[in-house]
Amino acid sequence: xxxxxDVIVVGAGPGGYxxxxxxxxxxxxxxxxxxxxxxxxxxxxxxxxxxVGCIPSKALLESTxxxxxxxxxxVHGIQTGDVSMDVKAMVARxxxxxxxxxxxxxxxxxxxxVTVLQGxxxxxxxxxVEVTAADGTAAVYDAENVxxxxxxxxxxxxxxxxxxxxxxxxxxxxxxxxxxxRLGVIGAGVIGLEMGSVWxxxxxxxxxxxxxxxFLAAADKDVARDAAKLFKKQNLDIQLGARVTGTEIVDGKExxxxxxxxxxxxxxxxxxxxxxxxxxxQTNGLLSEDSGVQLDERGFIFVDEQCRTxxxxxxxxxxxxxxxxxxxxxxxEGIMVADIIAGHKAQMNYDVIPSIIYTHPELAWVxxxxxxxxxxxxxxxxxxxxxxxxxxxxxxxxxxxxxxxIACEETDRILGVHMVGGIASELxxxxxxxxxxxxxxxxxxxxxxxxxxxxxxxxxxxxxVDGHAIxxxxxxxx
Length: 478
Description:
The protein is built from 13 helices and 22 strands. It is of the alpha/beta class. Strands 1, 2, 3, 4, 5, 6 and 17 form a seven-stranded mixed β-sheet that branches. A five-stranded parallel β-sheet has the order 8-15-9-10-11. It has a five-stranded antiparallel β-sheet with strand order 18-19-22-21-20, with helices on both faces. Helix 1 packs parallel to helix 4 and helix 3 runs antiparallel to helix 4. It is globular and about 70 Å long. The model has no long low-confidence stretch (mean pLDDT 97). Its EC number is 1.8.1.4.
């Protein structure tokens, strides 16, 4: 007789491990299936985010940002002399952080009583889960409820097949341990811009090839426009409308990249090439034909607003379902689903999910863009405040960017907030909290913000919505 659980979670990424911990906290007998193993055969928890995504990339970004600050410390009167980067030490630090966090999840599982089932998980009929270990042995487990949290994998493109050490995906890009003289990046999305920034700060000539004609099409146009100017100053050569047609390895040492743009056929040669054209759901082999769970034509699992699949008692969360592929979205879906399984009322507000790109300055937004609202025929009012007018930002020598707030002209409700700035990733939480509570611009206008802080830019942007900003000249209303 197979072992039975109240909840089996398939996948230990930021959606799966959070769902498992929450379910266990709510008194449910819980297991979590994970196929990743380390060189000793032990399960590796944390998924893409902790191992080869969010966390390691931020470690590298922080290291290179500190390097850049040290190079320019003379603005504060600090004389550092020649500054150099030990790339191998930088990568080792990144690996240590990853190890600490993934090991920490194991500790949390143990503390909460979550059972780890090591192997490849597959949903069978009647809420059974087959787990196949690395040695090929398989076991079947019964569950009252199953949460599918299989995550996503990088999209590979035929013109640029991955080649060890030369043509890399996001995982390979994190392990470059020497500063390349020339780096090519295919894709000007989150991964492409973040990885491009890491190496540009260390002196690499970075060329980003983006097939779309619009830069950061999903962002508010003010954010995209300002970011494009700032990246250009940082020596990121972003070429739009550049469609890669082929690659060639030259002498086993460099990559010749062929692409077409408005000028016709083009070619560049780089020492490393990162393919960062997006991700797709990791649902291959996840479901038996009689599981009762349906996929769409792109491999995403069909779910309702509360992440229920077509099979009773089976849920799916994170990158394998509709919505943005964001770790925090996956985590909150995991909590929602665990609460529902435990019999609690739970829902998630998909209209208030922050998006962030961790370059410097950072790009962050929540809610709708000005362009989306105008296309929907919504009458809006807009307030904008530059960090160049912030005393705290001046003191930090970090005055690039702005906060932009959009409110409904009729109700004053905040509909979107968009930022470019040094700590935009932290400030955007203020906007998300306000929007979650259906705040008006006036609510933030009447809120006391500490001085001097960069948060005051959020306050001033709210004031600017009605032409009442204090520390900039307000636009005259027509």
